Amino acid sequence: MNVLVAKTANDAERIAYTLIKERISGKHDFVLGLATGSTPVGMYQMFKQDALDCSHVTSVNLDEYIGLSPEHPQSYNRFMKDRLFDEVPFKQSHLPQGDAPDPQAEAARYEDLVRKLGVDLQLLGIGENGHIAFNEPGTALDAKTHVTELTESTREANRRFFDRLEDVPTHAITMGLDTIMNAREIVLVATGERKAEAVQHMIESVPTVDWPATILQAHPGVTVVLDGAAASRCAESLQARGQEAATRFFTIRD
Fold first, then answer.
1. For residues 52 and 21, is the Cβ–Cβ distance under 8 A?
2. Catalytic residues?
3. Does domain 2-216+225-248 have CATH number 3.30.1360.120?
4. 129 catalytic, yes or no?
5. Among this protein's residues, is 236 annotated catalytic?
6. I need a labelling partner for 232 at 20 to 30 A (CA). Which of 3, 42, 66, 90 fits?
7. Rounded Cα distance, 45 and 47, in Å
8. How do beta strands 185-190 and 121-124 pair?
C-alpha cells in the first residue's frame, strides 16, 4: 500500500486525478471503476476542465441504490450523468440497475459483467465506518457483487443528498470486496478529519470485517491519497514506514 499525503484536499484530488489521467492516456482500451459521493466530485470537475479524452474508456460504477430509477435525481446513474458523463463522453458506461425487478439477479448480472470486462483501475472513497462502496462492517471479505442493507450511519451520512432521512434508500447493489480486489490497480482518496479514524484502521489494523477497507492491504497495487486531516491519526506509523509527502512526487498546479 503506497500512501501519499498532500497538503490540502484539493491537492489530494489533483494527485489522484493525475494518476488516473496517466493510466487512461497510456492504454488504448481502458476499464475505469468509478465512485460516487462527495469524494470524487472534485476529480470529475478536473476531467471536465481538461476535456479529458475518455472515448476509449469503459466505466463501471461501484454501486446503486435499490428502488431508484436511473432518472431519479438522487440515483447514482443521474449523479454520474450530471457530474461527468454529460460533458465527458465514455466509450461505454455501466451501473447496476437500481429499479431491476429482481435485485439479486441484477447483482449476479453485474458481477459477471465486471469480471468479464476486467477493471484496470478502480477509484474508491472510504466511509467513516471503513466501508468501501457499500460494503458495510461485517461484510465477508470474499463477497461478490450483492444486495446489502445500509447501516444507519451510512444513511445518515448520505442524508444531505435527500430531503429527509426517510427518503434515503435502505438497500443497495454494490460490488463486493472480492470484486473490488480483482481490479489491477486501486486508487483510494480520503480527505477531512472525519475520515481519520477509518484511514488509521485501513493502514494500521489487520484485515478484518469490522473495517472493510483493511482488505486493501492485501492488494499489490493500491495507492492511498490523503490530505493532512485524513492522515492525522496515522502520522507516526507513516513516518515509521518511510512514507514521503505527496508533494515531493507531484507538481501541484492550480
1. yes
2. 63 (proton acceptor), 129 (for ring-opening step), 131 (proton acceptor), 136 (for ring-opening step)
3. no
4. yes
5. no
6. 42
7. 5
8. parallel
Kindly state the helix (H) or strand (E) to which residue 6 belongs, with its residue range: strand 2-6
| Structure confidence at residue 117 (pLDDT) | 98
Which pLDDT score, from 0 to 100, does residue 211 have? 98
Cell reading at 185:
490497480
- The catalytic residue among 64, 106, 111, 129 is 129
- What pLDDT is stored for residue 250 in this prediction? 39
Of these residues, 11, 13, 63, 120, which one is catalytic? 63
Model confidence, pTM: 0.91
pLDDT mean for each 10 residues of the chain (254 residues): 95 97 92 96 98 98 97 96 97 98 98 98 97 96 96 88 91 98 98 97 96 97 97 83 47 34
Known catalytic membership, residue 106: no
- The C-alpha atoms of residue 247 and residue 253 are separated, in whole angstroms, by 11
CA–CA separation, 225 and 195 (whole Å)? 12
- For residue 64, list its beta bridge partners: 173
What pLDDT score does 158 carry? Answer: 86
Report the pLDDT value the prediction gives residue 254, as an integer from 0 to 100.
32
Among 131, 146, 185, 227, the active-site one is 131
Sequence ranges of the domains in the chain: 2-216+225-248
Choice among 136, 158, 185, 227 that is catalytic:
136
Residue 157 is which amino acid?
Answer: A
Distance, CA of 140 to chain centre: 18
> Looking up cell 461505454, which residue turns up?
92
122 within 8 A of 16, measured Cβ to Cβ = no
